[in-house]
Amino acid sequence: MTGHSTDTSAGLDRETSLAGISPEYRRVLLKVSGEALMGAGDFGLDPVTVSAIAADVADVHRMGVEVGLVIGGGNIFRGIAAAARGMERAQGDYAGMLATVINALMMQNALENCGVDTRVMSAIQMSSIAEPYIRRRAVRHMEKGRVVIFAAGTGNPFFTTDTAAALRAAEMDCTALFKGTQVDGVYSADPRKDPNATRFDELTYLEVLSRDLNVMDASAISLARENSLPIIVFNIHAPGAFGKVIRGEGLFTRIIDPA
Ligand code: UDP
After folding, report:
1. How many other C-beta atoms can be found within 10 angstroms of the C-beta atom of residue 204?
2. Which domain holds residue 110?
3. Which percentage of the chain shows pLDDT scores above 90?
4. What pLDDT band is residue 69 in, cutting at 50, 70 and 90?
5. Any domain includes 146
6. From the CB of 72, is ligand 1 less than 6 Å away?
7. Residue 166 CB less than 6 A away from ligand 1
8. Domain containing 26 — which CATH number?
9. Which of 111, 113, 197, 205 could in theory staple to 187 by disulfide, Cβ–Cβ 3.0 to 4.6 A?
10. Is a pLDDT exceeding 70 seen at residue 12?
11. How many separate domains does the chain show?
12. What is the pLDDT of residues 108-148, one digit of tens each?
C-alpha cells in the first residue's frame, strides 16, 4: 500500500511543504506550448530550454503540488499549417499529435534528470513508449506524486493541445490550469509589437472570448468556464516562474468567473 492517502509520514511531509500554498493550487495542470521548447531556434527542441522548464516543474513538485503536464507540438508539426499546403487536415492533425509525443518524451527525460518520477500517458495508443491514457489510472499516478505528461492531445483531429489541457485538467479534477507563455500574462495587444499594450491582472472567461484575446483557443476557454477552472497565464521563460506563481508571487493574469 503506497500513496498519499495511506502513507501517513508522506502525507505529513506533503502538508508541511504545502504550507503557505493556496488550496487552489494543490493539483494543477500546466500547459506548455511546443514553441516554448524551441529556445532561440525556430524549429524543434532546445535541450537547455527543456531542462530549465523541467527544473521549474520539479521545484513545484517538490513543494508537494500534484502536477500534470500537457505539451503542444507546434515546434515540430501543426496540422493546420500542413493543410494550408495541401495536406488533408485530419491526417496533418494526427501527425501534429505525434509531434506532442516526441515533446512529451523529451520532457519526461528532462524531469527524470531532475529526480522526478513521471509517466507519459498517450491519447493515441503506442504501448512500447507510453501508457494508454486511462483517467482513473492517471489520477492514481498524480496521487502517488508522479508528474503525468499527457501526450497526443485529445487523441482527435480538429482539436488543439489547449483544449486537451482544459479537458485533462477537468478530468483530473485539477484546481487550476496554468498556461506558460512567452510573456508575463494576457495583454490588450501583443506587447512585443505594440508599445501601448497593457497587461491584465484579472479577466473573466467571457472577456477573453468577446475581446478575442489571444490566450487559448475558444473551446479551451469555454471548457474551463463550464468547469469553473481558473486559468493562470504567466511567462514560462522567467527562471523559477512556475514556482513563484504557485506561491502567488510575480506577474501573471488570472482568468476566472466574475465575483
Ligand atoms: N492536435 C490535434 N488534436 C489535439 C491536439 C493537437 O489534432 O487534440 C494536432 C494539431 O494538428 C496541432 C498539433 O497537434 O496543430 C500540435 O498541437 P498544438 O498546435 O496545440 O501545439 P502548440 O501550439 O501548443 O505547440
Report:
1. 15
2. 8-255
3. 88
4. very high
5. yes
6. yes
7. no
8. 3.40.1160.10
9. 197
10. no
11. 1
12. 999 999 999 999 999 999 999 999 999 999 999 999 999 99
Q: Where do runs of H (alpha helix) occur along 63-154?
A: 79-84, 89-113, 135-143
Q: Which residue bears the cell 483531429?
A: 157
Q: Is the C-beta atom of 161 inside 6 A of ligand 1?
A: yes
Q: Is residue 60 part of a domain?
A: yes
- C-beta 159 within 6 A of ligand 1: yes
Cβ-proximal residues to 120 (8 Å cutoff; 6+ apart), any chain:
101, 104, 105, 108, 129, 130, 131, 148, 149, 151
Closest Cα to atom 13 of ligand 1: 96
Q: Which atom of ligand 1 is nearest to the CA of 161?
A: 20
Is 180 close to ligand 1, i.e. is its CB under 6 Å away? no
Distance 93 CA to ligand 1 centre (A): 7
The answer, yes or no, to whether residue 10 has pLDDT greater than 70, is: no
pTM of the shown model: 0.94
CA dihedral 229, 78, 123, 158 (to 10 degrees): 70
Q: Is 3 contained in some domain?
A: no
pLDDT classification of 11: cutoffs 50, 70, 90? low
Q: Is 165 in the pocket of ligand 1 (CB under 6 A)?
A: no
Q: Is the CB of 122 under 6 A from ligand 1?
A: no
Q: Quick one: pLDDT band at residue 2, thresholds 50, 70, 90?
A: very low
Three cell numbers, residue 233: 497565464
Asked whether residue 96 is assigned to any structural domain, the reply reads: yes
